[in-house]
């Protein structure tokens, strides 16, 4: 049986599993949320069966944290001022890698995945089943939440055990991490669904999406110290959500002394929430307007 047929058959099994009946069952047909929830496990299994997806989205931030920690630790600790608290290189880059994980798990993963499913005919087959776009979105969003949470947990575990990074002990810091994570991963997932309409084929999806993600990571304070970037680049980065996710993560994990290195010498958590909420709305509207089971120009 082909991959397309297997995916479509899996969708029908998901619906029947929630329904409790067979093809001709008399049980009440499940609602869209129930069908979408049933698809989450299917989507997560498919995610971890793809070796390139696991490497370039799930493990990539962890690998980059290890590289940066090993490469720059000899330069000594990072200190925002002569009387400020100093931290290790790994501790400084950890928030950026957490933010990059949100971007990769949401935007890059879904943009490439959905574009590939549209190109190889999987979406066309799913469109011929009772599966609604809402249920399909719930399955994808659930997958991003599960894999994003596992990725963040792995990063934090490795940071505390392998790289010797001291994690926050204040409840307020973890509360900041929690809301930035939830708002950031939701925004990233919706933007990934919207961006999936851009590639014209599955083969070109990575070539279209990955460079965009790399540029955003370099200008948003993930791989480079944000305060060292020219002002015009900081302003450009402020137009996109990754800069705000990275800033929110730095507010959660870095000492307060490091706020002076931000664009306005403050964590600006209120603006972090506003910017991410605005991009969430943009992603929701754009994904609703652009999503099609089949490309119109196909």
Describe this structure in words.
This protein is mainly α and 298 residues long. The protein has one domain (3-17, 28-290). Helix content is 69%, strand content 0%. The chain contains eleven helices and no strands. It has helices at 3-19, 32-48, 51-72, 89-119, 122-127, 133-161, 171-195, 202-219, 231-237, 241-253, 269-290. α4 packs parallel to α7 (171-195) and α4 (89-119) runs antiparallel to α10 (241-253). The radius of gyration is 21 Å and the shape is elongated.
Summarize the structure.
With 298 residues, the protein is mainly α.
> Can you count the helices?
11
Largest sheet: none
Judging from the principal axes of the Cα atoms, what is the shape? elongated
DSSP strand content: under 5%
